[in-house]
């Protein structure tokens, strides 16, 4: 059970955080949300290079008197992404739906009756101790329990858009780690799309695009921030109470 001191501490922290956020919001009344600055993803403090299981390295072989260079995809200059810093367009096409319904019912009824007609000749003592006691019905128990639960899930998400990503790392087997972020501000609301994952050079099309379904370890996030998103979120105090209250 949460002590009053803990509740007071949580309330104080919530008040301080809310006060700082309120002051910042009051300073930006009437102003549109600011766009994030363009930064190097690898310079972020939480950036971590991706490490994946790699196959054994293959020795490079050179074919003498040949115009074909090992690893090339054409005789002409390839405009597709192939090294750190190159851009590749990710075609995000995400469609998911689920319709689940289940119901569980359970019922149980128990009854037990116990009598002691003969108890070492002392059955007569029972009536003396308990007036009107019946030796055939000394103990009787019964119990009944029932539960009924039902639940349903119905959702549908569709996302179709394009976003340019930057190659941030080349893995030893040639696969590329990409990361892209796109922000669009409409009036006082910013919609942002984040795409990250690992792609194969073979999956990049001739127009330097790659399907989102071909991204391994894909991380796709689509959301927003601004006046509309702020109204849709519960207040900080309500969020804190939802976490703290045990009922």
Structural overview:
Strand 2 (139-170) and strand 3 form a beta hairpin. The protein has helices at 4-27, 123-129, 227-232, 236-244; strands spanning 87-114, 139-170, 176-186, 189-199, 209-211, 216-226. The longest helix has 24 residues, at 4-27. The protein is of the alpha+beta class. The protein has four helices and six strands, in the order H-E-H-E-E-E-E-E-H-H. It has a six-stranded mixed sheet with strand order 5-1-2-3-4-6.
Q: What attributes does this structure have?
A:
single chain; 247 residues; alpha+beta; 6 strands; 19% helix
Multimerization status: single chain
What's the helix-strand series? HEHEEEEEHH
Straight-line distance between termini: 11 Å
The largest sheet, given as strand count, sense and whether it forms a barrel, is:
6 strands, mixed
Given helix and strand content, the structural type is alpha+beta
Give the count of helical stretches: 4
How large, in whole angstroms, is the Cα Rg? Answer: 34 Å
Q: What's the helical proportion of residues?
A: 10-25%
Which residues form runs of ≥5 with pLDDT under 50? none
Question: What would the principal axes of the Cα set say about the shape?
Answer: elongated
Q: Strand arrangement, largest sheet?
A: 5-1-2-3-4-6
Q: Kindly estimate the percentage of residues that lie in beta strands according to DSSP.
A: 35-45%
User: Mean pLDDT, rounded to whole units?
Assistant: 79
Count of individual beta strands = 6
